[in-house]
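User: I need a structural model of Iron complex outermembrane receptor protein from Sphingomonas leidyi for a docking pre-check later this week. Nothing fancy, just the predicted structure tokens so I can convert them on my end. Input:
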Amino acid sequence: MALSNHAEMLRARSALSLGTSSRALAAALLLLGATPAFAQGTTPAPAPADQPEEGNLVVTGIRASLTSSANIKRNNVTIVDSVSSEDIGKLPDVSIADSLARIPGVTAQRLEGRDQRLSIRGLGPDFSTTLLNGREQVTVGDNRGVEYDQYPSEFFKNVNVYKSADASLIAAGISGTVDLRMLRPLDQKRDTFVVSLRGQMNEKDKLNPDGTRYGYKASATYVGKFAGDTLGIALGVSAQNTPTQIERYAAWGFPTEPAAGGNLFLGGAKPYVQSNLLKRYGGVATIEWAPSENFHSTFDALYSNFKETQHLRGIEFGVAPAWGSGGVIAPGYTVRDGLVTDATISNLVAVQRNDLNERKAENISLGWNNDLKLSDTIHLNVDASWSRATRTDFLLETYSGTGYNSSGAKDTIRIHQNGDGTYDIVPTIDYSNTSVIRLTDPRGWGYNGTTAVVQAGFLNRPDFVDDLKALRASLKGEIGGSVLSAWEVGGNFSRRKKESNYTSYFLCPKGGGTNCTVASGTPTSLAVPNDVLLGETVSLDYLGVPRMLTVDPMKVYGLLNSVYDNRPDSLVRDNVVSEDVWTGYAKLTVDGTVGGKPLKGSLGVQVIHTKQQSAGQIAALVGGVVTISQVAGSESYTNVLPSASFSLELEPSFYIKLGAAQTMVRPRLDQERITQAVSIDLSKIGLGSQPQNSPFSSNGGNFRLRPYQSTNIDISFEKYLGNGGGYLALTGFFKHLTDFVDPNNSVLYDFSPLLSALTPAQRAIVVAQNAHIGLVSSPKNTGRGDILGVEATASLPFTVFSQALDGFGIFATGTYVDSKIRYANNVTPITLPGQSKWVATGTAYFEKNGFQARATYRWRDSFLAELAGLSANPEYRLGRPEGVLDAQIGYEFRSGPLSGLSILAQAKNLTDQPFVTTEASDPRLVREYQRYGRDYYIGITYKF
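Assistant: Understood. Predicted structure tokens for Iron complex outermembrane receptor protein:
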């Protein structure tokens, strides 16, 4: 199953990519015919861990935020966009992800009603890296992509998105690097104490009786300086309860239905309602000590603890006879353009769901940075950090229906497609009637790999631990009398280890039998006791179902037996992936003139050596017996990543910035696992010699995967308009991607060692047809492609037109991205998941004399959405275009007895924009529909 022949191919590709980037670097070196500039200081590169990049705030509120962000962009030789806080403890939006979604080239995908994951320049969350004060962070998610709602937004001064690379930027991503920056207490002008409280209400009443529509967010921040302003302390605490109400609809798919004239027909659907409550509390602490100009020490700590509870209730209707529903379609159905849009179907069996999901997670991050001035021109910097995230899920499903395995009463339903693509489903049975409904496995879906089980519920209990330790050291020095004004060399060692453990159980009625099997006499159903009923029933009338059985899933769980799920597919999900990474880098800073024009920049290279390891097990079901083999493997490789960045000021306040670099990002952690699930499907014996017809197959990860590679060219034109934070920017970018991971790659494999599991007669057929050659499915670096895009930004305070318009302004961005990815086994190009061709954001604001008002509209074109499918495996569908409007209004008292008090009212998702995905082949075929409703907030802040 090894991928040994692929290693040399990857090294050859890496060499080719390096050559391309080196030529771009050589072209940039021609600029070194410039003369040195002695009058100007060095331009800050991507901020080191001890120095945040902040502009001078000359106004307050959103104008201060835009001014600070503009200064960061202007003063950096790399291409960077930024969001800055309006004041201590106050980012300009409800969450970090909301704020970042206003940056050009950045889009947010809404999950569970919140902006959680980000795509930068068309590349999904796994292609960017998130840093905290310059240090790489772990995540409570399943892979590398950070879920930004784990970070309380009140704790950050700036959030910078670096879009071009720099040699001193460790763990940079291909799409970009997001750096979350906490405030530095010694940079503050005075001691400050800020308290804030905000209430939240969703326009929808609670959709489940155990949900809520009300929430809150509270925070307090203290910043103080002591010992003659040589010691600074910043402390912050935050707590929040955030509710979400979601009306959901999910379609199984749309098969061609012979009983309906060969037209497309709704295969099945599940209308349900979901009530979430996210509870999070956290704290930060920063201690900054600068006893002299020769020594500066900073210690940062962040802790976040959250628990999210989700109540989900709905009914799954299997509809299409072609997909085994057993239904009978009545004559007189309606067809439009080959799709049945209205029909009556009898003889159906539905599955009711009362589910409970709980996620508990903790995230801690510690960092200690020390900067020592060794001489007038040389600094030593040492930085140590530790980041750790733990997560445990409790995912409980409980089922009910009219009887076990279609033995109860059958339903007759009418389906009718709505204008938004969803289907109304109007049943005949009263699904809240406990004299009809029982706790059972209504469609007989339970199967343990060898025999039928009574699956009246199912429980998944995965837990994850993600741990990252890092140590970095660097020397920086100045160079006199040369266009090369400074040098820097450094090294970083990091060790990351992610443990993924999955445990799952079949749930069946108590009272007899063993292991929930039907053959052993396990009861097939259980009457619904009155004490599990909730006082209210849930209505699904937004899609035609007036009411359904509403029970407490935890009380139902107490009525059921739990039997361990030891199917091979379940066992091989347990794995450990670790990465030891040594990074060395060298960098030269450029500061001079070209034709009398100021030029700044940097030239550098990183050398990265990686040893990645994975441990787990290979599991197979042979003769009805599960066999397990423990496995482990490791792989080592080295990457060389050159980079160059230049900023030329052609005219006063008009810059051309150029970046050229080779970058990389590591594959998803679940793709690096070594585990495999081996399957023997006896029904395929005799089907022929094609590998897909072999009774043997295997599916799993690939511990030998190499990082994605990208050769990047960026060019930016930036014009800054005075001191009010105004600027115009036009940026073009090109990325040539290699070693792109194909998640569905398959290779031939000889399964002859498993022939002994077959009977002699079966073995003879398989050998005669050469069917012991089957397929091993595992990800592989077979893809390559290109991304081309343009970003435009206009930050315009209207004072650039007239002083009479002081206080008014706009901030608008637009992005176009085109991508094509090809895999070796599929010449048809695909679009990057998460990429919209067109993305636009506009903010209009007014702020003056303490009063502020603004509205932000975000729009994105259709995109390939990545969703969690069956068994949490990723699925890709076409996401419909969406536009989201947010608005807020507020007032800050600046004098009198209320001085320091601010009040704020906010509204989120005023357009009530649903999240909708469809089949890529036909946008009428809606697969997922989620409507979150509008959220309203009222808050007060007091600053002492």
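Before docking, keep this in mind: Residues 188-374+384-449+504-564 form one domain.
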